[in-house]
Amino acid sequence: MNALLCPITAVWNSSIGKKLLVALTGLALVLFLAGHLIGNLLIYLGAEAFDEYAKALHEALRGGGVWIARIGLLVCLVIHVAATISLTRANRAASPKYQHEAVIQATKSSRIMIWSGLTILAFVIFHLLHFTVRVDSELAEIAKASPHKMVIVGFSNGLVVLFYLIAMTLLCSHLSHGVASMFQTLGFRSRKAAPLIAFLSKGYTLVIWLGFCSIPIAIYFFHFGC
Amino acid sequence: MLNLTLKVWRQKTSQDTGSMETYDAKNIPEEASFLEMLDIVNTRIIMSGGEPIHFDHDCREGICGSCSLTINGVPHSKEKGITTCQIHMRKFKEGDTIWIEPFRARAFPVVRDLIVDRSAMDRIIAAGGYIDVRTGSAVDANSIPISKMDADSAFDAAACIGCGACIAACKNSSAMLFTAAKVSHLGHLPQGQPERDKRVLSMVRQMDAEGFGNCTNQYECEAACPKEISVDHIARMNRDFTSALIKEQLIS
Ligand code: HEM
Ligand code: SF4
Ligand code: FES
Asked: Which atom, in ligand 1's list, is nearest to the CA of A29?
C-alpha cells in the first residue's frame, strides 16, 4: 500500500488508533464550541456588536475563512461520528449481557454517549438548516438585514427553544464524560492529575450549558431584544 | 448459619445456550469462604445424584488468578481489592439471593457452567509480554539503578494475576487494563526498553484480534480489579502505542 493509505488504515484498524481519532476530533469540536459561545454571547452587547461580528466572520480571508472553518469542522464531525459508531458497534458485539447487570461506578453520561451524540447530530443538522442555510425564506430575509434580528425571531418559537434546550443538555451530558475522557485517551491523565481534569471538564461543561442556554431563555422567556 | 438462594448459570457445553438455575443454600457457616459455600452446595447436589456446579479455582488465597465468578453483576463481588476465593460468607445476609455468573466476554467462551476459556489473555502475553533474550538470573541489587517511581509503578503493574475481572467488568469487554498492566510492567524497566515499541504494538494488535471491545474510559476495570491495578497504566499504554505507531508508520 502507498505511504498515505498505510498509516491511515493502521490507525483506523486499531482500537487505540480509532479512539485517538475520536479524541482529537472531539478536542477540535470542544475548542470550536468555546469559540462559538464567545461569539454568541456578543448578542448581549447589542445588535450592532453582534452584526459586526457576523460580518467580520463572513469577510475573513475575503470570505474564505468561514469556508475553511466549515470544511474543517465538517471533516472532524464526520470522522468523529464514523469512528464512534464503529467503536460502539464493535463494543456491543464484544460484550454479552449479564442476567444480573450491575454498574460499579461508571457515570450515567458515560453510558449514553452514543445517544447523546446522535441527538447532537440531529441538532447540528437542524441548527445548520435553521441559522446557516436558512431554509425558512422569511428568516433568510431577516438575516440579510440583521443576523441579530434573525436570532431574536428564530428563538421566539417555543418548539425551537425546547429542542435547543434539550439538545444543549444532552450535549453537556456528552461533554461531562467526553472532556475528561479525552485526556485519558490522549495519555495525559494520571491519578495525580485526575481531580484537576475533573474540575476542568465539569467547569467547561457548566459554562457551555449556561452560556448557550441563556440566549434562547433570555429571548423567549424574558423578551430580550424584542 | 445462613440460608441463601443462589441463582447460578448452568451450561453443559460451549455450544449449549445455558440458563440460570435456582438452588437453596441452607445452613451455610458464616466463616466459610465463597468457594467453600459452593463446595457445600456441590456436595449436596452430588449426594442427590445431580451434576455439581463447575467453577475454576486453584490457590484459594488470591494469588493465582484462577477463580472467577461474577457475583451479583460484579466480577469477584463488590468487595474491593479481593478475589472470589477471598470472600467470606459473613459478607452476606440471611435470606440473600446471590446471582453467580461466569466472567462474560465474547472473547471468553463458556467451557462449562461458570468456567470460561481465558486463553485469549495468554495469546496477548505470547504476542509480546516477554523479553526476547535471556537476561540471566536476578542481578545484584542496585547494579542497575532504577528510579523509585519506576520501580514502584512496575511492581504495581506486575501485581496483575491475569484473572480477567477487568474484562468481565467492562461494559465493552475491553482488555485494556490487563494489557496495559503487562505493557507497563516491562516498559518501566531497563530490560524492557529495547522491545518497548514492538511489544506495545503487537500486544495491542493481538488484543484487537481476539475480539475484545474498545475502552470508553469508564474505569469499571480498576474498580473490579482484585489487585487494584491503576488506569494510569492505560493512559501510559495509549501514549506508548501512539508514539510506537508514529515511528513504525512514518519513521522506520
Ligand atoms: C459538538 C459536537 C461534539 C463534541 C464536542 C464531542 C466531543 C466528544 C469528546 C471530547 C469525546 C471523548 C473522546 C475520548 O473519549 O477520547 C467524545 C466521545 C464520543 N462521542 Fe462525541 N462529540 C460531539 C459530537 C458527537 C456526535 C454527533 C456523535 C454521534 C455519533 C458523538 C458520539 C460520541 C461517542 C459514542 C463517544 C464515545 C466514544 C468512546 O468513549 O469511545 N459525538 N465526544
Ligand atoms: S488487571 Fe486486575 S482484573 Fe485485570 S487481569 Fe490483572 S489482576 Fe485481573
Ligand atoms: S483461586 Fe487463586 S486467586 Fe482465587
From this structure: 5
